[in-house]
Amino acid sequence: MDTIFNSKQEFIEEYREAVRELSGKKFEITSDIDRFNALAGLIASKARSVSARTDDRFKKEGKKRVYYFSIEFLIGRLLDNYLINFGIRDMVDEALREMGCNLDDLCRMEPDAALGNGGLGRLAACFLDSMAHEDIAGYGNGMRYRYGLFKQEIVDGRQVEVADEWLSRGYPWEVRRPDKAVRIGFGGHVVGHTEGDRIFYSVEGTEDVLAVPYDIPVVGFGGKTVNKLRVWSAEPIDEHFDLEAFNRGEYAMADASRADAEAISAILYPNDAGEHGRLLRLKQEYLFVAAGIRTALDVFRREHGAKWELLPDYVAIHTNDTHPAMCGPELMRILMDEEKLTWEEAWDIVTKTISYTNHTILPEALEKWPIATFSKLLPRIYDIIDEINRRWRDSFDTSQEGWQERLRKTSVLWDGEVRMANLSVICSHSVNGVAKIHTDILKRSVLNDFYALTPEKFNNKTNGITPRRFLAEANPSYSKLITEAIGPKWMDDADELKKLVEFEKDPSFLVRVGDSKRQNKVRLARYVRRETGLVIDPDSIFDVQVKRFHAYKRQLMNIMKVMDLYNRLLDDSSFSIQPTTFIFSGKAASSYTFAKEVIRLINSVADVVNNDSRVNDLMKVCFIPNFRVSNAQLIYPAAEISEQISTAGKEASGTSNMKLMMNGAITLGTMDGANIEIAQLAGEENEKIFGLTTPEVEELRASGNYFAWDVVNADRDRLGRVMSELTDNTFAGLSGNFDSIHNEVMSNNDYDLVLKDFRSYVDAWEELTSSYADTRDWNRRALHNTAMSGWFSSDRTIREYRDEIWHA
Ligand code: 6GP
């Protein structure tokens, strides 16, 4: 472990000085926000000097550089994480206490940078952590949104979206690099210039904006490697400020070009899937792609000169989903139009450099853009895509049967649209899914025509999570216990967690596992009380489903289970349950009506159940508003049941399932996404699996023999009753009934199979919770889950990317 302070005393002196420099005041009279900004600023400046050293070392070693292109990086707060990764958390904690302040309070001052929606964005952030830990020269390339993902408030049970002004109190981690700004052209027309026997193209008459980078350090655990996340902000090119308009009092008009340019990086689109057709989104995609490619090529040229044929040996460009799909055509454009390579030379380089990860099979998430919009905004990029598509078509062996159908499915241009997933596959040497079953589904169905043509491109990389943030930082009491048992190496190598298996036989250790869980439940209960006023009982089971709201994730099925249990408790005096707190948290895309109605239903059920003294000692329903990285870190450690209940075949991987497992929660789940690998590793006897499997779902759909009404009618007393309660005022007190949900489910013949899986789900829940009374065995299973979770470290995932895709 390299250290950035030689002693506590040295830290205290430097920190005092930093506070004074920033605020002009003596430490004792400064506010927490000044203290936070000074502390983060000090750590950031140390991180930048290590970063400079890291960079020199990489240069000397001739390391291959990996650029991870992602339109989202859901990094959350950094201070605590970086103190842990530098190995100075305890020292700083102690020093601050001596100085009369509290580290946790300062950490809470940090804005929770929400530059992402959910799974895809958080995965990118975990990957940055692991790339630095694995000493890979890995750089994030993304967008600096002025407003992060909206804040969620709950009013009368409804989600209300509020702008997230995360930059309003400054952001001490970033450094603006105007010297590295890149001019980005939109619109205009393509002009050809003849030089000898070749024609070269340029675009004239573009409207340009400036992409200005901000660098955020990425501190790897151990403190030896510090990489960078570079995020781009859009600004006007010159100060087109119209002084005359200003003097006339037309202030908005005077600064119109600034507003137009800045709009590009103003907001993060709040959909985790399926936001297309918006011009501004397309501008975002091109801006961070073109600017990021420029950075990568500048660095390469500095180190290796213009020997472009060496690019694939020294640069890997990874595209996180299809949002950076223009990396291929943009790199082609520069290599041909500026560096004068031929198409064939450039194409060879491009396809050896770029790789692609798919994150979802939902058809609405496979990005498509209208050709008319696309070609107008990016005429040269469009021409290149057109040529890629033409050559793709020409490569087809028309003597093979079925080639027309295959061409239709794999074309980039079809039906007046640009299909970004097909572009991504064609431009890449590697295509991967994010869990075994997901990759199989890509091969077998979503991308099966590509798989038939180039099976060697396809590979699986099961997702992972960083144990530094999601165990060491989020769960200090458990981490301490683990370290006492097996030593601290697990933070470096999560496989070490396996050594915990031995302790499953140690009753006193299991008691301490339970104690730590209880501490975390108390901590969460305090947070819930502070945020919502609701009192929850830390001695009840904490049953947790936290993630984006989406029909296929079936939060609806979960709350219907709660309604069913409530009905039975009221009706049947012989029926009882293990006392449980049903915890939900998550956001819905602002335009996703159904998902928002489910949020309203959960809050409406909570309103009834939590105010009914007949059941309150047995159940409470708790919706935690504004799910984000910081409160997720309080929720995972407190969870005992991990609800992973998506319709089989729909969740590509899931990552909250891994975070919850690592924190000792038992999975109640379907055989979907990474749940399958979790069950394999931990053993099905240590989880609770239920519901239709993927083949069963596919068979049922194909049979045409599924009728939702039959399922409801066959279970009138329970399921039928729950369905009626959506519309009969039982839960209408807060803000009305739920005809919307009833209609959506019935009119789509239960598309997500909520009704179909309902009974097996409730039965599974009852079986699982009835085993809670055996505290010792529950704690053993919890510990076993932690012990077997090491494989889900993103360090393992990243090593696989490094060895099998990036060859870095
Ligand atoms: C998500 C998937 O839904 C989730 O299953 C997976 O764990 C996660 O990506 C990370 O791979 N997908 C997205 O967030 C998304 O926006 C376009 O897909």
UniProtKB/TrEMBL annotation:
Keyword Transferase: yes
Family: Belongs to the glycogen phosphorylase family.
Residue positions, PTM N6-(pyridoxal phosphate)lysine: K659
Example GO biological process: glycogen catabolic process
Cofactors (names): pyridoxal 5'-phosphate
Organism field: Collinsella tanakaei YIT 12063
InterPro entries associated with the record: Glycg_phsphrylas, Glyco_trans_35, Pyridoxal_P_attach_site
GO CC annotations, alphabetized: cytoplasm
Function: Allosteric enzyme that catalyzes the rate-limiting step in glycogen catabolism, the phosphorolytic cleavage of glycogen to produce glucose-1-phosphate, and plays a central role in maintaining cellular and organismal glucose homeostasis. Phosphorylase is an important allosteric enzyme in carbohydrate metabolism. Enzymes from different sources differ in their regulatory mechanisms and in their natural substrates. However, all known phosphorylases share catalytic and structural properties.
Gene Ontology molecular function: any one: pyridoxal phosphate binding
Catalyses which reaction(s): [(1->4)-alpha-D-glucosyl](n) + phosphate = [(1->4)-alpha-D-glucosyl](n-1) + alpha-D-glucose 1-phosphate
Protein name, as recorded: Alpha-1,4 glucan phosphorylase
Keyword Membrane carried by entry: no
One matching Pfam family: Phosphorylase
Catalytic activity, EC: 2.4.1.1
Entry keyword set: Carbohydrate metabolism, Glycosyltransferase, Pyridoxal phosphate, Transferase
Cited SUPFAM superfamilies: UDP-Glycosyltransferase/glycogen phosphorylase
